[in-house]
Amino acid sequence: MSWYRNCVFFVKGLREFTRSGYESASRSFVPEDLEVDVTGRSFMITGANSGIGKAAAKEIAKRGGALHLVCRNEDRAEEAKGEIVAETGNQNIFVHILDMSNPKGIWEFAEKFKNEHKLNVLINNAGCMVNQRELTEDGLEKNFATNTLGTYILTTALLPLLEKGNDSRIIVVSSGGMLVQKLNTSDLQSGNITFDGTMVYAQNKRQQVVLTEQWAKAHQTIHFAAMHPGWADTPAVRSSMPDFYEKMKTKLRTEVQGADTVIWLAVSPAAIKQASGLFFQDRQPVPTHLPLASTHSSPEDEEKLLKALEELAQHFKPT
Ligand SMILES: NC(=O)c1ccc[n+]([C@@H]2O[C@H](COP(=O)([O-])OP(=O)(O)OC[C@H]3O[C@@H](n4cnc5c(N)ncnc54)[C@H](OP(=O)(O)O)[C@@H]3O)[C@@H](O)[C@H]2O)c1
């Protein structure tokens, strides 16, 4: 089955996820969708110092939004801020230092942020593909801690703030890679498998899609969306998937092309006309399963994921 899924996924990827896939899809884009002024609205982007996150930040800054860049490295974050301010003239750019694999730190950050700022749009973009099994200081597997638990805690902690605002949106930068994985809640720390970073990452991205669907059902005043950027030429792809990068480098999307749907979901009035909780690619909701791939999960398994994340989140919540 995994051979079948991988083949179907790769063929689909060559057609749709590449730069030519973007160029073809973009012929149906409505340019006016992005002709908006978001002055007065506040956006948070995790992992905003690089790649898709930085490209999205710049486009939102050009449209007047206040931006909170949440990054783990101060120098890289300040450099990105300087670039965004210089290129857009927008002075409302704020840096926050946070490691998304540190659950206690996320709770503390969100608590402080809630008391000091307003927020209209949260973009969960930070992500990693660590190819060896590595544990955080808390004993959590690094990919899971960053991609799944970090996203879960930040979103959960900021929900009350977003619920206070109007036209609130939460975007999760997932990946089409999740199409090759069925939700698996039995080994969240990947301790019982032969470790394969690509598959662990894909599992985390599947978890993000399931979470987005569940959040949308539970929080109806907020518009939730997960998305796939396509295959874009970013530092993460170059460093975590060097073989893939070598083979595909002439076919990859630019960072701005990868960020296009994030920007559309974050600022356009068109995006919120779509139902909440869907998975988007090139400004369109798309299926979350490949045909005949047997990746559908049961409501019980989805419930199990939520329960396990909530237990972990509470375990790390400062008292
Ligand atoms: N590029 C693609 O083809 C592609 C395809 C599908 C999905 N995605 C998703 O797109 C998102 C952005 O990735 P990208 O391709 O733009 O790569 P990127 O340029 O390397 O950006 C990743 C960002 O996440 C940050 N990050 C990683 N771990 C973190 C942590 N523990 N705490 C805080 N920040 C952390 C990185 O910070 P540092 O700079 O400090 O490392 C960086 O800012 C990811 O979620 C990725 O899974 C990308």
UniProtKB/TrEMBL annotation:
Pfam families: adh_short. It comes from the Eukaryota. PANTHER family: DEHYDROGENASE/REDUCTASE SDR FAMILY MEMBER 12, DEHYDROGENASE_REDUCTASE SDR FAMILY MEMBER 12. This is Dehydrogenase/reductase SDR family member 12. It comes from Sphenodon punctatus.
